[in-house]
Amino acid sequence: MNAAGERETVALPAWRRAVLKVGSSLLAADGGGLSPRFALGLAQFVSSNLAAGREVVIVSSGAVAAGRAIVPKAAEAGAAMAARQALAALGQAQLIGLWQRFFERPVAQVLLTHDDLRNRRRYLNARATLNELLALGALPVVNENDTVSVDELKLGDNDNLAAIVAALIDADVLFIATDIDGLYDADPRAHPGARLMPEVAELTPAVLAMAGGSGSAAGTGGMRTKLEAAAKAGAAGIDTVLFNGRRAEVLRQLLQGRLEGTRIRAAHSRIAARKYWLRHAPLEPGAIVVDAGAAGALTGKGASLLPGGVLGAEGDFRRGDMVEVVQRDGDGERRIARGISQYSAVDVRRIARRHSRDIESILGYNYGGNVIHRDDLVLL
Known about the structure:
Elements: E1 10-11, E2 17-22, H1 39-51, E3 55-60, H2 63-70, H3 81-100, E4 107-112, H4 114-118, H5 120-135, E5 139-144, H6 157-168, E6 173-178, E7 199-200, H7 205-209, H8 223-235, E8 239-244, H9 248-255, E9 258-259, E10 261-264, H10 270-280, E11 287-290, H11 292-301, E12 310-314, E13 322-329, E14 332-340, H12 345-351, H13 359-363, E15 377-379
Parallel strand pairs: 2-3, 2-6, 3-5, 4-5, 6-8, 7-10, 11-13
Antiparallel strand pairs: 1-9, 8-10, 11-12, 13-14, 14-15
Helix pairs in contact: 1-9, 2-3, 6-8
């Protein structure tokens, strides 16, 4: 608090695209099921930002809590994995229905597993789907696909999932709405004098030690998992914002660009972190060969690589692999860039020198008009 006894606020990072993670503690009703009590305020926060031209993806817990209300006798603590997965399946429709009631635009259900995000080709498909949903004006609501997950429902899975989704869609900021005010220098439940930390410049071991264990009975995560998520987001150059989603005043301040909570800063800028990864990620054997016109567009105009400027492909790389881009002409060849190919080597050879609009007629499918999107490319 400041000298006047008011809670200190800090500025939010500038953002155009964000992920908002909402925990079960903000959605679970007393006695089971879902409640709109706190979800309404969060939905108004989202709606105001959408109206301002920003983009938001929600990562929402609450499916298991919703399922407990449908089949309360199956909800004993420590239920078998299959029972919890069944509850998640029963509750997921209720969860999406809760969010849809707050928005006039369509709400899209996106269920992911960690396997989807570890497999590079599935990762690219998930990113393409989310980006297309945002382009269509829909509101994606993401949850872990607990029903088919082979791992146990881990503590804080959706905190970490939210961080991965933030990196997946190149978000500017990760908002984590919880039922406490932010990160304290000690457990406020045990230490009444604990101080709220408005800003964290670096997630040191000392800062991580401030986090306690699991939070409320309705959720599966605690402050520790939120800091782990912030570390993941920070590695991608994304700031994390922790705030109390139960307090209307906090949400009003967020809309004014001020945070009463905790802002955890990323160690590097988002662009720097992504470019570093693109520059240093392992290369697959092979290359995409381009003509002088395509090379000039890449190096001089910051353009994406289109099939019309491609001469061919070397090697046997797959969609989603990191490959080099080589310019070849009468003067020889030179390496000009590296990037993530949207198409396999076989497909690149088939669409080389053709127009983007012809891709589907040639291949029978398409992953977009770019062989390598400019966001997935770094010049050498």
